[in-house]
Design goal:
By secondary structure, the protein is α/β, with parallel strands linked by helices. The chain is built from 27 helices and 39 strands. β7 and β8 form a beta hairpin. α16 runs parallel beside α17.
Amino acid sequence: MTTESDPSYPAHWEADVVLRDGGTARIRPITTEDAGRLVSFYEQVSDESKYYRFFAPYPRLSDRDVHRFTHHDHVDRVGLAATIGGEFIATVRFDRIGPDGRPASAPADEAEVAFLVQDAHQGRGVASALLEHIGAVARERGIRRFAAEVLPANSKMIKVFTDVGYQQKRSFEDGAVRLTLDLEPTAESLAVQRAREQRAEARSVQRLLAPGSVAVIGASRSGGGVGAAALRNLRDTGFQGHLYAVNEAASADLLDGVRAYRTVADIGAPVDLAVVAVPADRVPDAVRACGEHGVQGLVVLSAGYGESGPAGLQRQRELVRQVRSYGMRLIGPNAFGVINTAPDVELNASLAPTPASARGRIGLFTQSGAIGIALLSGLLRRGEGLSSFVSAGNRADVSGNDILQYWYDDDSTDVALMYLETLGNPRKFTRLARRTAAVKPVVVARGGRHTPAGHVVPGTRLPESTVSELLRQAGVIRVDTVTELVDVGLLLAGQPLPAGPRVAILGNSESLGVLTYDACLTRGLRPLPPLDLTTAATPRDFRTALADALASPDCDAVVVTAIPWVGENAPADDLAGALRDAVSEHPGKPVAVVHVELGALAQALSTAAGTVAPRPANAITPTTPVTPTAPVAGVPAPGSAAAQTPPPGTPRQADTPPAADPAARPGTAGEGRIPAYPAAERAVRAVAEAVRYAQWRRSLADAGQVPEYEDIDEAGAATQLAALLAGAGDSAITLDEADAITLLARYGIRVLPTLPAPDADAAVRAARTLGYPVALKTTAPHLRHRADLGGVRLALTTEAELRRAYDELTQALGKPAELLPVVQAMVPRGVDTVVRSVIDPAAGAVLSFGLAGVPSELLGDTAHHLVPATDRDAAALIRSIRAAPLLFGWRGSDPVDTPALEELLLRLSRLVHDHPEVIGVSLEPVVVATEGLSVLSATVRVARPPVRTDLGPRTLPSY
């Protein structure tokens, strides 16, 4: 029997979870010290709920009951409790049973499970969260099935079991419904889990961004400091809810025109959100007061936490634990604040005053307050407003992942802009970003390469280039600077998506048109010859030329260039109006304007002619001819042309990205708003990102599939890996050649065998066994894959040639014992490639491909993709490297067998996806010939599988 201090206490079962209504609870094992909590909890449960639990009136727990429900061995008998403020709100337990239904021990793999939820907390999703966690515990303890008996009238609990997504059986016995659940996760159970996660986390953010009442704790009487600034901004913006000021020294009823109280408890009314702006050492008291008053969430502006060093980081951990113990969520600490411009909310709980024109369709998330100020001012200066803004500071609790969950189905947000210093959990971020990007653009700028102080979630070990590529595969628009973040966001918020890469260029400067043309080529676009309207062009000339370009079927986007007129100036408003008129006559294609020393034009274009309202159409429609993005020179595009998208209204689940809705627009800025840029390169960059994103959206219509291969021996591979790791402990091991070849062969990956050649005679015998011609090569680590050092001799056709090569090798490079020479049969000539897979602790399994030697090692020409890969992914992977033309008949050479290469990639993807114990595979070289391929060498590393937080039960990051 255990307590929390007992070494056998399973502390890793503890977790914080977000409930259906957005509040939080802590799930932990029940211990012997919980007797009093259990009795108190049971006393607050209604008689009806007790009857449903025990099938009979059961008014109170006996001492024997309390002992049984608090004493567990955490193997055959397990109990978990959901707690808020340290008190139980729900419990669940399982008891292992045998085939006869009586208590049993392992290897029995079935258990009876039962729940009890306090009536006041029913309907919050507590039982569903507990079922996920108790199911994970059961699988860890070797239990494969749950059995439960439920009274027919207990429809809520029956629904908990039937909705979980597990395979199940249902019967009616002795007046009760008997349910048997197979605990093996299924695609349906994972979809259910992620849908619940999305709803809960989105709701938790909504409670922070749309409160009915706000209290500012720490608003000074002098009007100085961050608390007073936040209070003024809330008041001046016109917050639609109840606003309170809290200052322990308050001596009047009003503080800066707002009702003032000495403590939160004195308010005497519900408080949904508290903005905390007191010194760090006083924050715990403020949190305690908020928790006891029932506050739902906190924005902590106070500094002195993780950003200040180890002591501050410990203070930050304690803050998160304290906040969650009361069921609250936290933005910050060291936050800049939050803004919600919805007309029924008008919340500005930040340190940035926002004008009335701040309302728009862009959502903005930053980790840095300084960057948040720059982005806010940049967007507002260029005429674009926000739907919501979150500057999370140290993001100790609420992170970018939570905000993505909220934006996913927020009708007020059409474009998501994010400035991130770390990704935290790239695996989850990529999943959420992919789902969100399927319905609205997600633009990300990363501000650092390392985890900054205060951010206790570990970052990825992947190179920055790999992370960027994986984000792009998820549909994320990756930019490098804050300026680019604003540039791209403006275009996406105010313009339709382009149907292809063809760009028309027109303007009154030939030179500026040429610069724009060159920028388009650099970005992979297909510009049409620039149309020079000459410096004498009038606004009417611009309107006519732009209307013609937009009406033409030969272009997908238009860039307008403008320089000041010589002599008499045409008013900027006239030119802006002419451009808007042309766009309104021919909607459906994006337009960007490049201006030189025409600030008035940029200002006029940024002024919307209408109100903020969704636009009705998108350039991507089933009837619009789609021009695919230009492929890499010499590389054919994989598969057929982009498939059309399904009709609007297709049902979607929270964990599955929907296909692009043809009627949806990425942006819904005011009618007539056209983005303007002071440089051609900036405008073209924005257009190019929109083109790439639109093409990704179209590709969702046919995302491909993960093939099934009948010759894969998944069970045999699992058995082999279990045997190999039986005595390995927690260390990773590199398989010897025989084991590696056997494991890979179970997935249809044939590695050409080698025979050792410790002396010349052994080499000759090996050659006779394999058959001439053969290759002689060293396998010493310092010479492996280094043909340039002379460690390989190829196409040896006779015994004499083999002996001569052996002598030359040993004389030049060292003794046989140092070189470890081997003999291998020759294979058809082809292109040498490298195929690898590695497990990153944060991003998961990553598949990599490149050409062997200089292209990948010196130039870094390697492509990556998350596992599992589909057939379309594999085809795109081999075509995405710069040296890909060498595979497709470059300069008259014979094209190699790329279908065989794609199959190899898919088989390796299946292996590492099916068996997380395989933490690294390197196939080098893989010689791809005109027919077939040959894997000449393989290295396989295995270890006990790492914990997959994205596949387990829902949890918040732990502290």
